[in-house]
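pipeline stage [seq->struct] | target=Alpha/beta hydrolase family protein | organism=Aliiruegeria haliotis | residues=268
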Amino acid sequence: MTDPTAYDNADFIPDGHSYFPRWAAAAEAFRAALPASRQRLDRVYGPHPSQAFDLFLPEGTPEGLMVFIHGGFWRLSGRKDWSHLAKGFLGNGWAVAIPSYPLAPEVRIAEITRSIAHAMPVMAAEVAGPIIISGHSAGGHLTCRMLCPDVDLPRDVSARISGILPISPLADLNPLIMLPMNADLRIDAAEADTESPILHPEPTCPVQIVVGSAERQSFIDQAIRLADVWNRSDLSISDGCHHFDVIDPLEDPRSEMVLKAISMASTD
């Protein structure tokens, strides 16, 4: 029997319910402090109101583009809550694009995947050079999906992807079918199979999977299982980190997470 709380996070993290408003405040403060000339906000990539992205630029010519795809179990949040996570890559001369996407229950996960796939060439057109895709939780799922053959990104875009950094990714959607949240997600067996990265071939580019050692066991298991199937990938278990603070290193230009991710661009 599936534990209905197996993928719940906030109730199992000290002061867990404060994180989303804290992230939103940090993101707003980051945008307020960054010169307007280094921000291209609310760039549209599709007809839905949520089909837009924010682009943050480093000083000088960008070394490449990092795309960060936010989490929230495909049901919550948007690009304005995560701007501050651009700091680490910006500090290394990379541009950072953060897209929003339509959310469940309005749309299903397959439609969200198509939305991000539609956004990729639009974001890629803004900045030359290599592309690294990262995402957290549900965003980690979408990160992995961008490299699955059925998504079929334009060849000129996929050729630029130097690596992906899925953080606490949801790689197998089958366990979610029996959870209460599936009332919104509406995952059925067919969608669980097509939308589970773990059931798709391993990408040819580098994959760096990160999960926290203090996360719910279900997220640790998902990361380990993905690394077992995508057996050329690198799995890092961040000591003492839970599901909400495991992304903090993205704010630090000198963090191991950021520098290791950037190193993927030199392996082409």
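stage status: PASS
auto-comment: The mean pLDDT is 97. The first helix runs from residue 19 to 33.
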